[in-house]
Write a structure and sequence with these properties.
With 332 residues, the chain is mainly alpha-helical. The chain starts with a helix and ends with a helix. The protein is built from 14 helices and 9 strands. The strands form 4 sheets. The protein has a 3-stranded antiparallel β-sheet with strand order 4-5-6. A two-stranded antiparallel sheet has the order 1-7. Helix content is 47%, strand content 11%. The model has no long low-confidence stretch (mean pLDDT 85). It is globular.
Length: 332
């Protein structure tokens, strides 16, 4: 919504009530003047759509007309998505072996800052989340002490993060994604991260619990607010995820006694995690629909596809057992 406000101020126009013409003018300005991707522009339109829906439903403004539902705006958005998509700059996938070494050596997990960095990479990789969506996640929780002295974490209503039991008895992390591409008030997304991934030798649920107990980020704030290197209870903005990932790869190579591959280093970025898991799942023979649903990618679908979604357990099992092709290759 801030993008529309900035455009209106720059053009000396009145922002509210929002007019369909202003929406399309702002989109053209972003496309030609700022060279933004059409998906990003549509995400901004969706934000205004949500604002009007909120005012209508929660503020009781029943007669409020949503300009984003205007026929011209809908057609304009469709043309924008179909004909003005920028060429992808998505990062290349890394191998399971590289990721496993990063998980083990990339961060100093003796400190809250290291636990934070590795956990954020886990959400980007195994949750197949984009950096913006990851950094926006809100955590609401409380910590209590049981009679035996153990600390218990309870995830509260309204939190984007919950640890829940699956049908087979395993725990998993459920992530409510409210701010991301292809996400709006009518199309929410949930991401699922299993309790254990053998190929990477990681336990994401334990990693999450361990970080919350060690750093104790403020309940109601962002899960990935960056903890201070030395001051307890001091947090700042998440910072540059790409820089943290590249540094983790370099550190993991040094501690593992392996040379740093400059090509791999240049390709690593915030999209490397989600793209890598998608590639590993594809190598395992997982179908495109499951991969797309797990990663929140939009696929052109037939009418029948609107009636079903990939089951949570299917996604969890695919991610938990990822790396079958890799294990076959090293076994000959």
């Amino acid at each position: 919504r801030a993008a529309f406000k900035a455009f209106a101020e720059e053009m000396h126009l009145r922002l509210l009530p929002l007019h369909p013409g202003l929406i399309m003018d702002a989109a053209v300005f972003d496309l030609t003047g700022k060279d933004l991707d059409s998906t990003t522009i549509n995400l901004r339109v969706n934000a205004m759509w949500d604002l009007y829906n909120y005012a209508k439903i929660h503020l009781g403004v029943a007669g409020l007309k949503n300009p984003c539902r205007d026929v011209e705006v809908l057609v304009f958005s469709k043309v924008l998505r179909g004909n003005y998509k920028k060429r992808s700059k998505a990062r290349e996938p890394v191998t399971i072996l590289i990721c496993a070494v990063m998980m083990r050596w990339g961060w100093d997990v003796r400190r809250p800052l290291g636990k934070w960095g590795r956990l954020r990479w886990t959400f980007l990789n195994l949750g197949m989340l984009r950096a913006g969506a990851t950094n926006a996640l809100i955590i609401m929780y409380s910590i209590t002490r049981a009679q035996n002295g153990d600390l218990i974490i309870t995830y509260e209503e309204g939190s984007d993060i919950h640890v829940l039991p699956s049908d087979d008895g395993h725990l998993y992390i459920e992530v409510n994604v409210d701010s991301d591409k292809n996400v709006n008030s009518l199309n929410r997304r949930k991401a699922y991260i299993p309790d254990f991934v053998e190929a990477l030798d990681v336990h994401p649920v334990e990693m999450l619990q361990d970080y919350l107990l060690a750093a104790q980020p403020p309940s109601g704030g962002r899960l990935f607010a960056k903890p201070h290197r030395s001051k307890t209870g001091v947090f700042s903005k998440p910072g540059n995820a790409s820089y943290d990932i590249k540094r983790a790869y370099t550190r993991s190579c040094q501690l593992a006694g392996e040379p740093v591959d400059d090509k791999v280093l240049s390709l690593l970025g915030t999209h490397s995690g989600r793209k890598s898991l998608a590639q590993w799942l594809w190598n395992d023979g997982v179908c495109r629909r499951i991969i797309a649903d797990a990663g929140g990618w939009f696929l052109k679908r037939d009418a029948v596809d609107l009636y079903f979604r990939t089951a949570r357990e299917t996604i969890l099992n695919a991610v938990r057992n990822v790396g079958a092709a890799f294990r076959r290759s090293i076994m000959g």
